[in-house]
Amino acid sequence: MTLWMQASTRKRWCCRLLAGLTVAVLSLPGAAVAQSLSLGGVKGDLPIEVYAQDGIEWQQDGSLFVARGDARAVRGEVEVLSDELRAHYRENASGQSEVWRLDALGNVRIVSDSETAYGDRAIYNADQKVLVVDGKKPSLVSGQDTLSASQQLEYWELKKFAVARGNAVATRDKKQVFADVLVAHLNEDAQGKTQVYRVDAYDNVRIRTERETATGDRGVYNVESGIATLTGQVRLVRDENELRGCRAEVNLNTGISKLFPCQSGQGSGRVQGSFVPKNRSNN
After folding, report:
1. Which of 150, 172, 190, 203 shows the smallest number of beta carbons within 10 Å?
2. Does some domain include residue 283?
3. In sequence order, which residues have a C-beta less than 8 Å from that of residue 21 and are 6 or more positions away?
4. 232 and 242 co-located in one domain
5. d(Cα 232, Cα 242) in Å, to the nearest integer?
6. Which domain holds residue 202?
7. What is the largest CA-CA distance in the chain?
8. pTM of the shown model
9. pLDDT digits (tens, 9 = 90+) for 8-31
10. How many domains is the chain built from?
11. Is the dihedral of CA 239, 256, 163, 246 positive or negative?
């Protein structure tokens, strides 16, 4: 493994991890074609370049590289930016050095050609190919869609989905789906860029349209059709009016909602509702 370092007039250090680290692939999650948040997905033998304002420390005893101060790791068109970067490496079966974990600490931003992830801290496990981002409000922006949470965000590269935990919100334009946990399923469009096509919602599910609010225990949101299906104890609320049932279809594109009764053994077997006239004196 060769380490090349050079100081510039702006006191910026650049470290090229050649040989073993280059071949071993330091990667962040995503597909090889789209580079979806994946340093390892870049084609060819491009080196990983690490820049840091305050220098790069090589801790050989701990098998660790530490880059501090406006740290930036670049491979191809994918960048990882943070206050500090920590690359943990080890020797593989071929005797080469490989990075198996990358930690980004402070003001984290991970940028690819189709996605951007934000957070206070990010940890990527190369063995599992899972990225975990946490902090005040971790978020993932993919095309027209934004997924955010109050606790943490997980990006599962091989399974092609992202999980938002704690006050999770999925947003496209003015359409929003809220829940304790949201799972966004991803695929690639015709241009090879990652996009969200379905969102599964778990616990305290809430959907808002311009006219009403729908709540339920679970939900499935088809992003392209704009239709969200809620199940469990479902409520539709518009102004002071309320409908209750066991399943609802809410079209976020048209604003039209349909409520369905419970099946046999699940409830009263009919939709229930209460309505408050706008002008009580005339009724």
Report:
1. 190
2. no
3. 1, 48, 89, 97, 98, 99
4. yes
5. 16
6. 137-275
7. 86
8. 0.79
9. 333 333 333 322 232 233 333 333
10. 2
11. positive
